[in-house]
Amino acid sequence: MRHSVILAVSLAGMTALAACGEKNADETVERAFQDVNVVDESNLSDVMLTVADPNEAVAYFNRTVKENPDRIDAHRGLATSLVRAKRYTEATSAYAKLVEMNGVTNDDRVDYADALLRAGDWARAEEELDKVPPTVETFKRYRLEALIADSNQEWKKADSFYETAVGLTTRPSGVLNNWGYSKLTRGDFKESERLFTDAIRQDPSLFTAKNNLILARGAQGNYALPVIPMDQTERAQLLHTLGLAAVKQGDLQTGKGLLRDAIETHPQHFEAAVRSLRALENNVSNG
């Protein structure tokens, strides 16, 4: 009898231990799956923010925000994806919610200001940047400060911000182009020409800087194409711009000659140059 009781107690203990072991094992497996899901979701978020179609990323982060409304990283992903998708009005709304959440960073506020600038709300962008401490010295912050100073015609501040921004990036072509355009609008053609040339040196594919360089040279009465990298189509487009610049300067015959060169140079039919030349010849004949 005594042996039966001991056996029963032992079996009960073994059953309890087995149950406890199964429970711990289940919890361990569940935690492991949770960890895997977190890693997978983090990787998926990174993919969505970099290589995924921007609108697909917006849909993904919209779902994530609805399922997890307190996750600031999901709100941040949504706002960033909306900017990538060029849906700037929606992006500013997403950032407005983001900056009210716990865990918001100074970088979030800078990104919010960037979205506001893209949406055309310069006043609010300036207000948001003013909330960022001056100790935050990033390329993006100074680039935005330069653009805002430019819009306010605060030229000394703009030049200082542009110069600082250039020193904070290894890819300064875009900000050099912006700085050059600022100088161009002020009538400082020589300096703008130098800055556009520097931008092209940094990024030979930056056609905007090439076109701006032509405008700066044309404004000085220099109608020779500069020695810069260009394919045949780009050459035709730059000749077109140079022709229009000549016309603006009152050099009508030079302008017509450059437009004809543009038409002949383009590998396909260059409708814009044809229209410009036709309009110029009609005006001359009517005049």
From TrEMBL:
Residues 1-18 form the signal peptide. Pfam families: TPR_16. This is Tetratricopeptide repeat protein. It comes from the Bacteria. InterPro entries: TPR-like_helical_dom_sf, TPR_rpt. It comes from Tateyamaria omphalii. Keywords: Signal. Coiled coil: none annotated. Transmembrane segments: none annotated.
